[in-house]
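Holo prediction — NAP.
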Amino acid sequence: MLLRGKTVVVVGGSSGIGLATAELARREGAEVVIASRNKDRLTPAADRIGARAIVVDVTDDDSVAALFRACGPVDHVVVTAAQLRTGPVKTVPMADARATMEGKFWGAWRVAREAQINAGGSLTLVTGLLSVRPRMNSAIIAAANGALESLARSLALELTPVRVNAVSPGIIDTPIRAAMPEEARRDMLAKTAAALPVGRVGVGEDIARQILAFMTIGFATGSIVYVDGGAIIS
Ligand SMILES: NC(=O)c1ccc[n+]([C@@H]2O[C@H](COP(=O)([O-])OP(=O)(O)OC[C@H]3O[C@@H](n4cnc5c(N)ncnc54)[C@H](OP(=O)(O)O)[C@@H]3O)[C@@H](O)[C@H]2O)c1
């Protein structure tokens, strides 16, 4: 087991990529803490995988500080928390654009500031393919992802001997699209799958395995890895 004796904190661990990462870390022998806002979703997820649950809101400085006070020193921290609001630059409300940066970018910043990570441990940020393959009406998400990639590289210098990396997922089938009408969601995922060299969209574990690689490869820092089913080349 690759993570026996290690402690892993997954911020955003109640769902999707974060939950898949927490599950994989448990299977690899780690003590795992999962953290997110909605206790009703967090607690059953933690109970199911045998993790500790701590409620946190990454948009709140004090909440993030309290999370890491409760955790103490840990070995690996992963940030998947994000709630994204987007739209055309000319019309998306400023409050929505700011909220996207507040959660996804400043959330990761707060975690980097507060987490006490043991030497040789790692911080992994989750960005997204829009940073390099933009789509219409998603500029604020693309910008948040790009900023996170720059942040990961900078922090890899600043936080050494803690290692800092980022994984950039392509389209992954997670609850992030729960608000979409079911038929439209399935249609979008099917069209995406058909256009990709791998012939399918991703699942949470595809990204979790990359995050596990960042945790366990002591030579990996300042790396940005695109795990996208070939979206970047198609
Ligand atoms: N799925 C994709 O296709 C895809 C593609 C590219 C990039 N990504 C990125 O991958 C990351 C994970 O996405 P996912 O698909 O796993 O999403 P998800 O299933 O919606 O999970 C998001 C998690 O973040 C938590 N969260 C949201 N806002 C939070 C806040 N303010 N404070 C604390 N926790 C918060 C959520 O729980 P609560 O709501 O209870 O807080 C949930 O646990 C995101 O950064 C996303 O942008 C995803």
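READOUT: The mean pLDDT is 98.
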